[in-house]
Design brief:
4 helices, two-stranded parallel ribbon, 3-stranded antiparallel beta sheet, alpha+beta, about 140 residues, about 15% strand
Length: about 140
Amino acid sequence: MIRYSLRCSNSHDFDSWFQSASGFDTLVAAGQLSCPVCGVTDIQKSLMAPNVRPARSAAGTDRDLSAPQTEAETALAALRAQIEANSDYVGMNFANEARLMHEGASDKRSIYGEAKPEDAIALIKDGIPVAPLPFIPQRKTN
């Protein structure tokens, strides 16, 4: 595996992992690599610095990888916090709960959870409003 620093034609910088250098070239040539910000497929490698392991004395100065690093990550973390604070997590029972609320058999409330793709498609076909979340819910345990 190899990680490249990349830049799109709209000057958005991002990183991505590839199976090999030729794997990157194949994806770019086929137009299958796109910018995660704007979606353009005109992607080039940008300058990269090698990832050099710090000296043991400096090892404690690494940044916190679980904390948001960009404006987009900060916004996503805020969205997640808002959804988790104001909605009920129903786990894999999401499709059933959404259907019961839509039919009036259950009180309406904000819920989030997980659904199989075929169950989500069935909800949409039945006119039940659902939307995918841009993050994977953290499973709550007792």
